[in-house]
Specification:
With 196 residues, this protein is α/β, with parallel strands linked by helices. A seven-stranded parallel beta sheet has the order 3-2-1-6-4-7-5, with helices on both faces. α3 links the parallel β2 and β3. The termini are far apart.
Length: 196
């Protein structure tokens, strides 16, 4: 076994691109830290996110973003909007189903949420999360199950997990059907249950 060289990596990536169906976008609801944006941008470029809708916060063109993005913003397209609700409305107008990644009383586990073929993952501010006004416009809300005593993840880490889950579904054909009950048998009913 040996590591892939440049040609081997290109072949591998080309094969996975052929397997990928549907569109994937991000809506960033006032994400502020340039290093978080840089990490999100790099993951988005690696997983071929189609578009980023930015509702306030830091833009990928910010000087400090490149320290973690390493120039990958050039592979992405984005639009800037005044706020999260306006960005979600634009994503919906572009044909995306919007799924917020947030801890709420009605959130379902990320692996059980219905995403559909074209999905925009809505990601919120580092401390305050997705705003209530933005959440009201989303088609669904999902949370990332966590087993430890820490109640939340860094926004860039959470975004990476959500992007991968969306792509994994297109590769495996494991889309959640709304006519079937979730495997967990219950919805998250209390945020305290999620972090204990």
């Amino acid at each position: 076994m040996s590591q892939l060289d440049g040609t081997g990596m290109k072949r591998l990536h080309r094969e996975w691109r052929r397997r990928t169906t549907g569109r994937l976008a991000l809506v960033l609801d006032n994400v502020q830290n340039p290093f978080n944006i840089g990490s999100i941008v790099r993951t988005a470029a690696a997983e071929r996110v189609d578009h980023i809708f930015i509702g306030g916060g830091t833009e990928p063109s910010h000087d400090k973003v490149n320290k973690t993005a390493l120039g990958t913003a050039r592979y992405l397209t984005w639009e800037v909007f005044a706020d999260g609700p306006t960005a979600v409305a634009a994503a919906k107008a572009a044909g995306y189903r919007t799924v917020a990644v947030e801890l709420t009383s009605e959130a379902v586990p990320l692996h059980e949420v219905e995403m559909g073929t074209d999905v925009a993952l809505v990601i919120g501010h580092e401390d305050r999360g997705v705003t209530a006004a933005t959440l009201r416009l989303c088609d669904a809300v999902a949370f990332i199950p966590q087993l430890g005593k820490v109640g939340s993840l860094n926004v860039a880490a959470a975004t990476s997990i959500a992007i991968y889950e969306a792509r994994r579904r297109s590769w495996t054909g494991n889309e959640i059907r709304p006519d079937l009950p979730p495997a967990s048998g219950r919805l998250a009913t209390d945020v305290e249950d999620l972090i204990e």
